[in-house]
Amino acid sequence: MSAAAAGGPVRTAVPASAHGNPTIPRILLGARLRRLRTDAGISREAAGYAIRGSESKISRMELGRVGFKPRDVADLLTLYGVRETADREMLLALADQANAQSWWQAFAEVVPPWFEAYLGMEDAASIIRCYHTRLIPGLLQTEDYARAVLGASHPLAPAGEIERRVALRMRRARLLHRPHPPKLWAILDEAVLRRPPGSHDTMEAQIEHMLELSRLPHVTIQVVPFHRGGYADAGSHRFTILRFAEAALSDIVYLEHLTNATFLDKTDDLDAYTKVMDQLCVDALPAASSTDFLAETVKAL
């Protein structure tokens, strides 16, 4: 069977944003392998047997949750009928990128697997929209604010571990200052500003930091003040919607819990959360008024 017969030509472009970030190549390659398998009428169990693995291994590969052995990818392409050299080379090139070293691997001791997946998506996103009701979003945090939050979240952790977590958070925030940064749009409940995790000085510096970031053309911060009751019910105290420049990738809704996280990409879920986020943007103070609100909050501290 030719590649065209198995769902069309295998022209999966290697995205420029993926270089140095294995997450997007993993997702793209996994999605393509899933399509090739289903078009060929082959079960996950049979595919797993062909690469000396299991059905669950094929599932993890197709979800982009693991790296890819070149031999496994080559064997699956043969099984799925992909014969043309150009098609195979393109997908094997994606496999190489899927196994690349990421910057967050240097923080492996403080990055659980579920958060590693998010870091890759955040790093590759073109638009990041988030809603928070309790804490300042990680990408907007100062070092002292992050240290206070992480210390409270991990009360039994030694000081060295807390510092590693702070360093990771500061490293994440660099994406706002790179040559081609993502668009960040943060909606904050007023309660976020009224609940300092550390001293008043820490909170004052944190709000001033957000005022500085809000001057960047790709950063928008809106505040939902207490007097604007009845705004959209988000069903969660925080959630994030990630959008990617690659047309082959759908938006992702990220919900973080205490010890794990949920990633949603089904159309119904995306529509529901996008609708809530859009309504929150309408219900919140406009960006300019939110900046004034932040400035007044600093004066009142």
Concise structural overview:
By secondary structure, this protein is α/β, with parallel strands linked by helices.
Structure classification: alpha/beta
The number of helical segments is 12
- Can you write the helix and strand succession as a string? HHHHHHEHHEHHEEEEHH
- Report the portion of residues in β strands: 5-15%
Helix content: 40-55%
Spatial strand order of the main sheet? 3-2-1-4-5-6
Calculate Rg over CA atoms: 22 Å
Count the strands? 6
Distance between the termini: 69 Å
CATH class of the largest domain: Alpha Beta
Largest β sheet strand count, sense and barrel closure: 6 strands, mixed
Shape: elongated
| Unreliable sequence segments | 1-19
Q: Mean pLDDT, as a whole number?
A: 90
Our count of domains comes out at: 2
CATH-defined fold name of the largest domain: Endonuclease, Chain A
What is the level-2 CATH architecture name of the largest domain?
Answer: 2-Layer Sandwich
